TrEMBL record:
Keywords, sorted A to Z: FAD, Flavoprotein, Oxidoreductase
Cofactor(s) of this protein: FAD
Gene3D superfamilies: FAD/NAD(P)-binding domain, Succinate dehydrogenase/fumarate reductase flavoprotein, catalytic domain
Ranges for domain FAD-dependent oxidoreductase 2 FAD-binding: 68-596
Protein name per its UniProtKB record: FAD binding domain-containing protein
InterPro entries: FAD-dep_OxRdtase_2_FAD-bd, FAD-oxidoreductase_2, FAD/NAD-bd_sf, Succ_DH/fumarate_Rdtase_cat_sf
GO BP term, pick one: steroid metabolic process
Gene Ontology terms, MF aspect: oxidoreductase activity
């Protein structure tokens, strides 16, 4: 099947990796952990660990170790925490339950939403702390879905103040950044929003061959080729038949050839983000154990976290880790836990996740077992996906925004502006009960733009049709019958849509009116780069389901990333960051990098707080 599989393209735009949930020897058959989690205290384990941790995980049946800080997880947030802890003079130990490091970071676009990041750009875009805070309040607090507990004013302020410091710290360690040119905020018209971009940054091209040879094979990768394209270049690639698209493809191709001619393995996006922080950890001798799972958190008689019990080899080899300063949970969320999704995401009707296979909620469950509160457990970093008969999801961003396309429900009616940001789209999909929804494009669209990873051209391959990914018909009525859509409803909706498209104004939902919509448009199409009639046969359709880039709910934390109980009291010695914590972004998505930006920032914040003298905490 001639499907373009840009595995390392931005998760938001050139998204159609078909990430496979490969069976792994460590993976549970169900639930979120391999052994029953239970409360443990140091009274139940050997109280005097005498062995410092080796560079690799222990192989003997029982061992006890003492470290300053245990970091659970190995994505970019986890390795930012360990790197900062090391820089502050502490000795961290990183444990990763799978055989590969990097987690969902390696699948991601690698972007970070960091207002006032300090990363230089050729374009001067005005921004300041107050403007960014105004925007966060407008989106998170004043919308229809406020989330006060995970997104307190103190947490917003901490994120905005410490984010630029985190960026500067990583740069001081050798990290190289670039501004994502032109990428607007996701609600640019709201107070404080930036329509011209400037708040999203991403890593520059990184050579994976800089990693020691023994680590190159331990980095999680997608299933296709790693194409070193930046997130802000992806739109042109999607419009590959335009002049800008062809020039961008030539530029990316030259980047590949030039780097490989020098014996390099160039990567961008999440692979570059993770590759850089992994390199810095390895260079500093920070121990990173793979194939090691968190079993439980150890507490003293006051409920303070003083260590953890970990295991490897399917629970056969146990080690007790005593922590002098704390435990940082940075192991992602529970996107791959069938039992936790069934409990918390009933409203979604099931989700097709693009998170890494190890995203099974172990860290969150361990924290809950000792009394940690959780928030946003019914939320995720939602986005629309198309799914073939094998159940493999492919992310959908540009298809929703480009001309000659429309999305309808089973009655054939539109229910939202198709071009809105991906999390908002799924919220609207849930609200309308449009699961699945149906993307419909005509032959004009098919001739110009990528569709579900299929390069533009005449029609689609037989393989795409046989897989069930795409359905083709010579008329809208035939297409409606094939998809199970109300025929008259679809024809009536398309008739009105085409009239609005000819005028260039979406009178129903405002498609193309936002700077965000226009970023994903075809700038050569007139009068509205997001709108075009769906009129030229044959027609093509795909079922659109709620998917996600990971879950958004987790341990409730304060502005120092400390875990909290339901009554608001701190669980001393326990910190949670990234998708192991409830997001400061609440139920919304503020801009490209809203997952990784807070993830790395609160990892940096947690490390700083851990390093404080006890009297100052």
């Amino acid at each position: 099947m001639d499907i373009l599989r840009p595995t390392s393209f931005p998760r938001l735009v050139l998204s159609f990796h078909r990430w496979r949930n490969r069976p792994q020897p460590w993976a549970p058959s169900s639930g979120c952990g391999r052994l029953p989690l239970q409360l443990r205290s140091l009274a139940t384990v050997t109280p005097e660990p005498t062995t410092t941790p080796p560079a690799s995980a222990p192989t003997t049946p029982v061992q006890n170790y003492a470290v300053d800080v245990l970091v659970v997880g190995s994505g970019a947030a986890a390795l930012t925490a360990s790197l900062r802890l090391h820089a502050l003079g502490l000795k961290p130990l990183v444990v990763e339950k799978t055989s590969l490091v990097g987690g969902t970071t390696c699948y991601s676009g690698g972007a970070l939403w960091i207002p006032n990041s300090g990363v230089r750009s050729s374009t001067i875009i005005p921004d300041d702390f107050d403007r960014a805070l105004t925007y966060m309040k407008a989106v998170i607090d004043d919308g229809e879905r406020p989330a006060t507990r995970p997104s307190t004013l103190a947490r917003k302020v901490a994120f905005l103040k410490e984010g630029p410091k985190m960026v500067k710290f990583l740069a001081s360690q050798g990290f190289r950044w670039i501004r994502s040119t032109g990428y607007p905020d996701y609600y640019p018209e709201l107070p404080g929003g930036n329509a011209g971009g400037g708040r999203t940054i991403e890593p520059v091209v990184f050579d994976l061959n800089r990693l020691p040879r023994e680590w190159r094979g331990k980095v999680r990768k997608g299933t296709g080729p790693n194409v070193p394209v930046y997130g802000f270049e992806a739109g042109n690639v999607y419009r590959m038949r335009s002049l800008d698209g062809m020039l961008t493809l030539l530029k990316v191709g030259g980047r590949v050839l030039g780097q490989r001619a020098l014996g390099r393995q160039p990567v961008t996006l999440g692979m570059s983000l993770f590759g850089q922080v992994l390199l810095f950890n390895v260079q500093r001798g920070i121990p990173i154990w793979t194939g090691v799972a968190l079993e439980s958190l150890n507490i003293d008689d006051r409920g303070n976290v003083v260590g953890a019990t970990i295991s490897r080899d399917d629970g056969k080899n146990i080690a007790n880790i005593q922590t002098r300063k704390g435990v940082v949970l940075a192991a992602g969320g529970f996107a791959r836990s069938a039992s936790m999704r069934a409990e918390h995401h009933l409203a979604s009707g099931g989700s097709h996740s693009l998170a890494s296979p190890g995203d099974t909620g172990d860290a969150i469950t361990a924290a809950v077992q000792i009394g940690a509160a959780t928030e946003l457990m019914d939320e995720a970093w939602w986005g629309a996906v198309v799914v073939d008969r094998a159940g493999e999801p492919a992310w959908m961003q540009y298809e929703r925004a480009l001309p000659h396309s429309i999305i309808v429900d089973k009655q054939g009616k539109r229910f939202t502006n198709e071009a809105v940001n991906y999390t908002r789209f799924v919220h609207e999909q849930f609200r309308a009960g449009a699961v699945p929804a149906y993307l419909i494009v005509d032959s004009k669209n098919r001739g110009k733009y990528i569709l579900a990873g299929i390069p533009p051209g005449r029609g689609v391959s037989q393989g795409a049709l046989e897989s069930g990914l795409i359905v083709k018909a010579d008329s809208l009525r035939e297409l409606a019958v094939a998809m199970g859509i109300d025929e008259m409803g679809l024809e009536e909706t398309v008739r009105r849509f085409n009239q609005m498209a000819e005028k260039g104004v979406d009178e129903d939902f405002g498609r193309g009116s936002s700077s965000y919509d226009k970023f994903f448009a075809d700038p050569k199409h007139r009068p509205n780069g997001n709108l075009g009639p769906v009129s030229r046969p044959p027609f093509y359709a795909a079922r659109v389901y709620p998917g996600d880039l990971g879950t958004k709910g987790g341990v409730l934390t304060d502005e120092h990333a400390r875990a909290l109980r339901d009554d608001g009291n701190v669980i001393s010695g326990l910190y949670a960051v990234g998708n192991s914590s409830a997001s400061v972004m609440g139920k919304e998505y503020l801009g490209a990098g809203s997952t990784l930006g807070p993830g790395l920032t609160f990892a940096y914040i947690a490390a700083n707080h851990i390093a404080l003298p006890s009297a100052e905490k």
